[in-house]
Amino acid sequence: MNRTYIVNQLSERHFQDLMNLYNEASWTKTRTSDQVREMIDNSYIFGLCDSESDQLIGFTRVVTDYVFRATIYDVIVLKQFQGEGFGRLLIEAVVNSTLIKGIERVDLFCADNKVMFYEKWGFKQVPITTNYMSLMK
């Protein structure tokens, strides 16, 4: 896996790669360029780039208060690179980062078929003891 490197800021080229990556996935394809720029400004990002082509091939982000809570969002890898361990590299970059060291609780949301993937790093399904609520606009 030494053919990749992690970035925490995106060049304009990497930003365009991210928009292409988002357009590829059903759950992110409606995001506009302006929305994604604002999202990046308000998140700590982990971009996974191919060393040879400098293409952004994977991405995730963290939103945190730096003390009590952090949430991982948007773990995504280009389809042609899925199944090659690149998602693992992204999650390892996050869980090994100084960003989340000492934070009381790190959360993420995932599809049912991804639960076992995240359990490898100690993530556990949280028993519902309170109501999960959302204000949709």
Automatic annotation (TrEMBL):
Top-rank taxon: Bacteria
InterPro entries in the record: Acetyltransferase_Butenolide, Acyl_CoA_acyltransferase, GNAT_dom
SUPFAM superfamilies: Acyl-CoA N-acyltransferases (Nat)
Pfam families, A to Z: Acetyltransf_10 (PF13673)
Domain N-acetyltransferase: 5-137
PANTHER family: FAMILY N-ACETYLTRANSFERASE, PUTATIVE (AFU_ORTHOLOGUE AFUA_6G03350)-RELATED
Protein name: GNAT family N-acetyltransferase
Species: Paenibacillus baimaensis
Source organism phylogeny: Bacteria, Bacillati, Bacillota, Bacilli, Bacillales
